[in-house]
Design goal:
366 residues, alpha/beta, Hypothetical Protein Ychn, Chain: A, Rossmann fold, 3 domains, six-stranded parallel beta sheet, five-stranded parallel beta sheet, 12 helices, 46% helix, disordered C terminus
């Protein structure tokens, strides 16, 4: 594991934590040198799937953008063949970020760029028109390719809850469309309040249960789902009968299949985290995706499941409950649709990456 070449203070909360942890990361020159040396000695470089090239800053891109950008720019400088596995691109509110990304993708070393949603692909095609756009392609998120291997899974976590069960993931979000801190806080409270009200009514209306599942636990407070999850749990304890609420604290090294197992025992997944929605679909469970970025709505649209995606802001409990009611009443048709769409996504991944491997003859060349 190597430290990033530039720290992202936004991952941390509090002035002391932002400054201290960012400085420690930035000044870890031996670790950064090891990363650069590893890139220099490699035969090719893969930009890992699931990443996200975006910038909410309007004048100049922030540290998070450069965490993604710099390793790939260094690989291109060393003339290493680069492939960007399926990830999201945009929005880039800073013109400088757009120019930097365009320059990187136009570099001869960058041989193939996979966007994981059609919206990202359209953005890239506008950024890189003409003959250079031939290196751009669509491929669904690599999570759809997950299949259980021969290795034995950890013991199954059983949800001993009265049905129907709604599995819930929430996260902290900074709502970049507003600038004032108090407005950001108000939108976070409105989002969580809508989720809490809907889950409470889910328990009352259908005698249902809720499993709160914090998916991500760092780095930093902003990416720690346990903080909003515990707040939601405390509020739901006031609204749900005893025995109708569970808090699923999985270990930090839990595999994706631990989440898939939890979601497979649920009747619906109310997913804020993008990959919670994908893991729910892998489990064959109906998902209501709460879209905090375009990647969520665009992926659900490609799967022809866009009616099951709601924007995180503004979020109304009535809208959540209308979708939950349809899921509770569903006779299995929605689950069959989900299975067929997951199979289709897997087929596209196999086709795209198979063609990539064939074009390289199994090994990339510059």
């Amino acid at each position: 594991m190597f430290p990033p070449l530039i720290a992202a203070p936004s991952l941390y909360s509090g002035f002391r934590d932002k400054v201290g942890r960012s400085l420690r990361t930035t000044l870890d020159w031996p670790g950064q040198k090891r990363l650069i040396d590893r890139i220099r000695s490699s035969d090719f470089v893969i930009g890992s799937g699931g990443g996200y090239f975006y910038s909410h800053r309007r004048r100049f891109p922030g540290p998070m953008f450069f965490q993604n950008y710099l390793p790939l720019r260094i690989a291109a400088a060393f003339q290493k063949p680069v492939v960007l596995f399926p990830q999201s691109f945009g929005p880039l509110l800073s013109p400088a970020a757009g120019r930097l990304l365009k320059s990187l993708l136009a570099n001869r070393a960058v041989q193939r760029v996979y966007a994981r949603e059609t919206a990202s692909l359209a953005y890239l095609q506008a950024l890189l028109p003409g003959s250079q756009g031939g290196k751009l392609d669509f491929c669904p998120d690599m999570a759809f390719a997950l299949k259980k291997g021969e290795r034995s899974d950890p013991p199954r976590r059983t949800l001993n809850l009265p049905k129907p069960v709604a599995a819930l993931t929430v996260r902290s979000w900074d709502f970049p469309e507003v600038s004032r801190v108090r407005d950001k806080r108000a939108r976070q409270e409105q989002y969580l309040g809508a989720v809490i009200e809907a889950c409470g009514e889910f328990g009352r209306r259908w005698n249902g249960s809720v499993a709160v599942v914090p998916q991500v636990r760092g780095p930093g407070r902003f990416e720690n789902d346990e903080i909003p999850s515990k707040l939601v749990r405390a509020e739901l304890q006031k609204r749900l009968p005893p025995g109708h609420l569970a808090y699923i604290g999985l270990p930090s090294d839990a595999s994706p299949w631990a989440l898939v197992e939890i979601f497979s025992q649920s009747d619906l997944v109310l997913a804020t985290r993008f990959h919670s929605a994908l893991f729910g679909l892998l489990a064959g469970t109906p998902v209501i995706s709460l879209a905090y970025q375009p990647k969520s709505r665009s992926t659900m649209a490609w799967l022809h499941l866009d009616e099951w995606s709601l924007p995180i802001s503004p979020l109304r409990p009535e809208a959540l409950l209308r979708l939950a009611e349809r899921i509770v009443a569903d006779d299995g048709g929605l689950k069959e649709t989900i299975r067929s769409r997951v199979d289709a996504a897997r087929a596209v991944i196999g086709e795209k990456l198979g063609a990539l491997a064939a074009s390289w003859g199994g090994y990339p060349s510059s």
